[in-house]
């Protein structure tokens, strides 16, 4: 009935631009249920280092923020976190970290190899540790990693440059294309509500995701962090991220789209609202609780005192509350055809 293939890009954008977003959300949720049923895939997130050589103006753990208590998890700790996750039935792990010179691609590849040797190849391993060279991506893929996440943050080259301290958007996009060509399952995405972002940029953000042929899409509201250059930026409404989620779902019907923690931070029901606007993934954070408070990309982050395993119970109930079901399946994107 409401298949997106019934809608042209023009019609999707017309829906997006309407004053009342209800029809947009309704169609996006319908399409999500058509492609994924009631299932909401679970991804266990492990924030393994908050050291970062980048200096992004929006980010709470950027190099210049001297108030951050820095930590990095070692191999032994990471192995035991994953072991515990596997025991609890989890089937996807996301290892996320800053661009940490002490955790270069070679060391990550070695860790991945050890994880595969010890725990097997059934579950999905996702890396999210910044821009690397083609050789480095190859090393990590050969070791047994499957998926890579790297947001482009904004599709506007000038804004990107401004907020990353002079970096090139094109280089990051080339990284995403390289990953795609190498057979990774690739995720990217952006924040909504950065200062200077226009409605046109927001639309281009979503269209860029489509052009890149992404398998996973992460979108979240930008939340100003008090210890960053963007501390005085205005907080924009969650609705921008919700509308963005729905637009992405209509443009990329088979992509995996998380209901992000940033949405849950802005509004207690933010993640549920995202799931009802086209999202189909939840990402509990199983980083050891002692370190969670030190990975504050933005203030007010939720679930800092709970272990991710406690979150699973909470998320189960949240899904049931909106007639959905938390799924422990590996959940590759149906749009992913790589190896
Ligand atoms: N508010 C919301 N999201 C943020 N991120 C970084 N800083 C912030 C912030 N202040 C997002 C970026 C990054 C992801 C891991 O977190 O999009 O890619
Ligand atoms: Fe973490 Fe609810 S999701 S406590």
- Which percent range describes the beta-strand content? 5-15%
List the strand order in the largest sheet: 2-3-4-5-6-7
**How many distinct domains?**
1
Largest sheet: 6 strands, parallel
The CATH class: Alpha Beta
> Per the principal axes of the C-alpha atoms, what is the gross shape?
globular
Count the beta strands.
9
Give your account of this protein's structure:
The structure is a single chain. With 339 residues, this protein is α/β, with parallel strands linked by helices. The chain has one domain: Alpha-Beta Barrel (TIM Barrel). It has 13 helices and 9 strands. The mean pLDDT is 97. Residues 303, 306, 311, 314-315 line the site of FE2/S2 (inorganic) cluster.
Keyphrases for this structure?
339 residues, TIM Barrel, six-stranded parallel beta sheet, globular, binds 5'-deoxyadenosine, binds FE2/S2 (inorganic) cluster
Walk me through the topology.
Elements: H1 9-17, H2 22-36, E1 39-42, E2 44-49, H3 75-87, E3 92-97, H4 105-119, E4 124-128, H5 134-142, E5 147-149, H6 157-163, H7 169-181, E6 185-192, H8 199-211, E7 216-221, H9 238-251, H10 261-266, H11 270-275, E8 281-282, H12 289-292, H13 308-321, E9 325-327
Parallel strand pairs: 1-8, 1-9, 2-3, 3-4, 4-5, 5-6, 6-7
The structure holds 5'-deoxyadenosine and FE2/S2 (inorganic) cluster.
């Amino acid at each position: 009935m409401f298949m997106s293939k019934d809608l042209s890009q023009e019609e999707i954008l017309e829906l997006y631009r309407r004053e009342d977003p209800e029809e947009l959300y309704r169609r996006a949720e319908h399409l999500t249920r058509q492609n994924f049923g009631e299932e909401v895939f679970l991804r266990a997130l492990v924030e393994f280092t908050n050291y970062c050589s980048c200096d992004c103006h929006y980010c709470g753990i950027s190099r210049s923020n001297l108030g951050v208590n820095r930590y990095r998890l070692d191999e032994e700790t990471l192995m035991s976190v994953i072991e515990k996750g596997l025991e609890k039935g989890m089937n996807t792990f996301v290892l996320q970290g800053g661009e940490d010179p002490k955790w270069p691609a070679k060391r990550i590849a070695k860790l991945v190899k050890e994880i595969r040797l010890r725990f097997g190849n059934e579950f999905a391993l996702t890396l999210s540790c910044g821009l690397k060279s083609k050789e480095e991506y190859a090393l990590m893929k050969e070791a047994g990693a499957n998926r890579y996440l790297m947001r482009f943050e904004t599709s506007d080259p000038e804004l990107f440059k401004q907020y990353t301290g002079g970096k090139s958007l094109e280089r990051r996009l080339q990284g995403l294309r390289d990953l795609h060509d190498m057979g990774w399952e690739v995720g990217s995405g952006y924040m909504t509500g950065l200062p200077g972002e226009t409605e046109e940029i927001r639309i281009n953000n979503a269209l860029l995701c489509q052009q890149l042929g992404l398998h996973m899409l992460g979108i979240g509201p930008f939340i100003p962090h008090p210890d960053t250059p963007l501390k005085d930026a205005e907080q924009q409404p969650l609705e921008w991220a919700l509308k963005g989620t729905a637009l992405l779902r209509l443009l990329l019907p088979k992509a995996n789209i998380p209901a992000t923690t940033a949405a849950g931070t802005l509004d207690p029901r933010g993640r549920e609202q995202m799931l009802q606007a086209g999202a189909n993934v939840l990402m509990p954070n199983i980083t050891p609780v002692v370190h969670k408070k030190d990975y504050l990309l933005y203030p007010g982050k939720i679930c800092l005192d709970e272990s991710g395993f406690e979150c699973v119970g909470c998320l189960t109930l949240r899904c049931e509350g909106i007639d959905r079901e938390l799924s422990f399946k590996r959940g590759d994107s149906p749009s992913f055809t790589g190896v």
